[in-house]
Write a structure and sequence with these properties.
Low-confidence stretches: none
Number of helices: 16
Helix content: over 70%
Structural class: mainly alpha
Order of helices and strands: HHHHHHHHHHHHHHHH
Mean pLDDT: 88
Number of strands: 0
Distance between the termini: 29 Å
Largest sheet: none
Length: 358
């Protein structure tokens, strides 16, 4: 069973809040304002994104496999690829254009060759891939310095999440659901496990490995019960209260404790709000619109901010801050409608084409 309208609405609002927190935190940091607590919002919001991602992907997979027994890794890969890659590819192109244009305008020295190498690395979602990181750090081979593209710093998390998706999907369909496991499947699983395992033990700008947070979301989805009758609305209310506490208490109790509090609230909420949600169409519509460009906002906000700061410099005051914040949101909203929304049409075209291609 998937999420009802009320559950989707609350989670959409949380996604919107987290995406805006990332933008605000990065803006404050780039402005050089001494607000450490607000700057730390970006890292904490990423942790919550990973919890939500693990929960939502697992919920979606449960729904697909229950409704369609033929649903397998091929379909899972297609769904994740269409959801992530088209706007991601557009973001890479936009980053490349913004960076090169800014370098030319400000007459900065840069290596176009290195930019193309980084572009290829990011095209295959290999930025900060553990095997390359190991070779680069321990054998000092500069060729394997696989980094995010140019000024788009947040792209490092997209690669991690992509390999988590593939590892989870491959393990589920080929290892857990298969009666016979072939040798080649073990080799593929070992390769796909490199990034998830690495980010269990390596924090990278966080208190704990991101894989742990993603699998925390996975366990929340697996623990969710769809047979609770009657619905426990009191549990939903408690869940929302704890979710809000987990959102705002990280400066007091730290990232990990706040994230666990958030996860606890999410568990209560998903198991408590079992109503149909039909009385919340307005809330659902608004929240869907707000969260509809969150992924695009995350993908492009940083290079857009850097471009504006370099090409249109001004005093670092509140007015300049607000104008950049507004511009980034408008650009991301348009970007989402051009690339993120249209990427869903690719899935529909595939679904329409598939019956005729069999």
């Amino acid at each position: 069973m998937g999420l009802n309208q009320f559950q989707s609405s609350i989670l959409n609002i949380i996604r919107f809040i987290c995406s805006q927190a990332v933008v605000v935190a990065h803006l404050i940091s780039l402005f050089g304002w001494p607000m450490r607590t607000l700057i730390s919002m970006a890292s904490y919001a990423v942790l919550l994104f990973f919890i939500l991602s693990g929960s939502l992907i697992t919920t979606s997979l449960k729904q697909h496999t229950l409704s369609d027994p033929s649903y397998g890794f091929k379909q899972f890969f297609r769904d994740r690829f269409i959801r992530i890659y088209p706007p991601y590819l557009a973001a890479l192109c936009l980053t490349f254009l913004l960076d090169v244009t800014a370098f030319e305008i400000t007459q900065q020295i840069y290596s176009l060759k290195q930019y193309f190498i980084n572009l290829v690395v990011n095209l295959f979602l290999l930025q900060e891939f553990p095997l390359a990181v190991f070779i680069n750090e321990y054998y000092m081979i500069e060729f394997f310095r696989f980094r995010y593209l140019g000024t788009n710093v947040p792209l490092w998390t997209i690669g991690i999440e992509w390999w988590l998706y593939l590892f989870f999907g491959f393990a589920f369909f080929y290892m857990l659901r298969s009666s016979r496991i072939r040798i080649w499947q073990w080799f593929v699983l070992a390769f796909l496990a490199l990034s998830p395992l690495y980010y269990v033990f390596v924090s990278v700008r966080m208190d704990s490995g991101l894989t742990l947070y993603w699998f925390l979301g996975l366990f929340i989805a697996l623990a969710r019960r769809d047979d609770i009758q009657p619905p426990n609305n009191a549990g939903a209310i408690v869940g929302i209260a704890v979710l809000l506490a987990g959102l705002v208490l990280f400066p007091k109790i730290g990232y990990t404790n706040s994230a666990l509090l958030f996860a606890f609230g999410l568990t209560f909420f998903l198991n408590g709000s079992k109503n149909s949600g039909s009385i919340y169409p307005t809330l659902h519509s608004i929240s869907k619109s707000l969260a509809g460009y969150s992924y695009s906002l995350y993908l492009i906000h940083y290079p857009v901010i850097i471009f504006i700061l370099n090409v249109f410099p001004s005093d670092f005051n509140g007015t300049y801050f607000f104008l950049i914040y507004l511009a980034v949101n408008i650009i991301a909203f348009v970007f989402a409608h051009l690339f993120e929304k249209n990427s869903q049409k690719l899935k529909q075209l595939y679904e329409n084409y598939r019956p005729h291609s069999n």
